[in-house]
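Subject: two folds for Thursday's group meeting

Dear M.,

Sorry for the delay on this. The cluster queue was jammed most of the week, so I only got both jobs back this morning. I'm pasting them in the order they finished. Each block is the input sequence followed by the predicted C-alpha cells. Could you check whether the formatting survives your parser before we put anything on slides? The first protein is the one we discussed after the seminar.
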Amino acid sequence: MAHNPSDSDNEITTTKRKLFEHDIHQVLGGREVADVLLWRNKKISAAILIGMTVIWFLFEVVEYNLVPLLCHISITIMLVLFIWSTMAQIFKWNAPNIPDIILQDYLFEDLATIFHRGFKQLLPMLHYISSGIDLPRFLLIIVSLYMLSVIGTYLSFVNLLYIGFLCMLTLPIMYERYEEEINNLVGNVLVDLRKKYKQFEKRYLSKIPRGSVKEKKRI
C-alpha cells in the first residue's frame, strides 16, 4: 500500500507536546524557591530582584571589584546592626534578628534540587538531540547556541548573569500565566521545522545513493 504524504503531515501535526510534563510549580521544586520564582511571595521576590539589581549596578556601572564590595557590604551591615542593637537597649526596642528563611536548610536544598533536576534532564536531552534522531531540534539548538555565543561577545559576564537572573524571575511566571499560548507557539514552530525537514529529506537526502551493505560470512 502506497504511503500517503498527508498521513505523515497529520502525524507530525498531532505530535505537539507540552514543554513540561508536570506543573511549572512542581518543575521548579514545588516549595519556597518555586514560590519566589513564580512570585507567590511577592515581597521576597521583589526584595531579591532589587538586591540583584543593586549588585549588578555596583559591579557594572560603578565598577566595584568583588573583594572591596563584599568588605563594604559587611561593614555597612555590621554598623547598622550595631546602631540598631544600641538603640534597642536605650529605647527598649526589639533587637534585630536574622530572618528565619535565610537560616533554613530547605532553601538551599531546593536550589540544589532545581539545578540537579535541570542538569539531569539536560544531559539525556542533549544526548538524544545530538544522536540525529530529531534533526530539526538539533539544528534549532545549534543555531540558538551560536546566537548565544554571538550575544556573549558583546556582553560582559556580569550582564549575562543579570539577564539570566531576570529570565529566572520573569519566564516561569509568564509561562504559568500563558501556558497554553506558549505551548501552542512552540509546538507550531517545532511542527513547522519537522515538516520542512521532511520536505528536505524527500527532495535531497532520499536521492543520495547508498551502497548496499553485504552481510559478512562467518567462517
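Second protein, same layout:
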Amino acid sequence: MGREVAESCIDGVIIEMVSAYSTRFYSSKPDVAARRIEAIGYQVGHQLSERYTMERPRFADHLEAIKFICKDFWTEVFKKQIDNLKTNHRGTFVLQDNHFRWLTRISLDPAVVANTEAASEGESGADSGAQMTSMLLYFPCGIIRGALTNLGISCAVSADMSNLPACSFVVRIKA
C-alpha cells in the first residue's frame, strides 16, 4: 500500500511551516528563521536521498550526482525533471525549474522580486509577499543541499526567483 499524500496538503504544510518560523517563532530574526527553514529542508533532502539511492551504486563524480538530482530526485519530489542544467565546469551548477510547483500560485510585484533572493540574509524587502516567497525557497535549497551532502558532496545552495514561477537553484561545490 503506497504512502501518498495529496500535493495540496504538502504545499499547505510547507507554507504553514515557513509562515510559523518567519512570522511567529523568529519574526524579529529573519536570518535565524531562514537558517531553521533551510535546516529542516536539509534533513528532508538527506533522508529522501538516502531512500532514493539505496539500490544504486555510488556516483562517480559531481556531475553524475547533480544529474541524478535533476532527473530522478526532482521527479520523485516535484513530479517533473529540472528543465535546464548549466555548469561552469568549476564546481558551480545552475538548476532551472521553469514552473516551480511551490511558486505557481504566487503573484508578486516584479520590481520587488528582482531585488529579493533566498540567499540574501537579513535583507528586508518592501513587500512581505516577496519576503515570504524568499523564505519559502530556503526549504528546497535545504532539500538540495541535504541530498547532495548524503551523496558525499559538500555544497552551498541559493535560489533566484526573479522570473516567477520559474526558479533557479545555484549549487556551489565546496572544495
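Two things I noticed about the second structure. The chain is about 50% helix and 15% strand. Residues 30-52 form the longest helix (23 residues).

Cheers,
T.
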